Amino acid sequence: MQQKPVYLIEGVDRALVLIDMLSERGTVSLSEVARELDVATSTAHRLLNTLVFRSYAVQGEGRLYHAGPRLDFMAQTVRKGWATLTRTLRSVLMDLLEETGETVHLIVPAGAEVCLIDGLESHRRLRVATRVGTRLPAYCSAAGKAILAQAPWPYVEELYSGGLTPWPYAKLHDIDALRRHLEAVKRRGYAVNSDETEPGVTGIAMCVHDSRRRPVAALSVTVPTARFERDRERPLVETLRQFGYVASDLLASLPPDQLPQPFPARGR
Asked: Taking the model in full, what pTM does it have?
């Protein structure tokens, strides 16, 4: 969990926590909200009524509140964008698996995390299993670092204004180290994760872009560290680059509003 920012706006923070509660549970009670937010019942009531007014919540019988149509619309929009990505780039993943013989993933940014939305597993005896559906800290994963390196720095700085999310295998521990690392990633054009998400796993990743050059996702190749040799890095990077171009060309043919767009376009 990130450290609380010094200048946290309590009212906004409470409203966002309440939105998370509604998203995760579907239904909450007035007393439940007051207890978990550690506020008076009257404050909880005002927060809920505000969400009702903005269609993020719907008041039910008694003192129950349900997730509103606005939350459902947002969830459907995200799922639709991810579905478009997976449908469009599935063939690229299949070809990338065949070319490298290693486990491959399609990964999207999700705030301070990344989510593995599609993947194919290597057929080798010693391999990395697919992790579809898994979320990981962006600053630890190769895909996350590749994407963050192309995001505007003020966005990254704000994202980690409360500090880097603690992770047991992290090799970066503060925002200054992250900035230096991302600058190096940006110069190289790809990112590497060596045992940073979990022991024994090495990953290499590169961004794919939409027609507006936004890094909407990343392709990654994941190899067991035990059989990853450094002389394989360059050939894997070149293969990723080739398939990244193919993936970006496919995405460029789609209207940008059909794809997830989590942060502003990178300056060219």
From this structure: 0.74
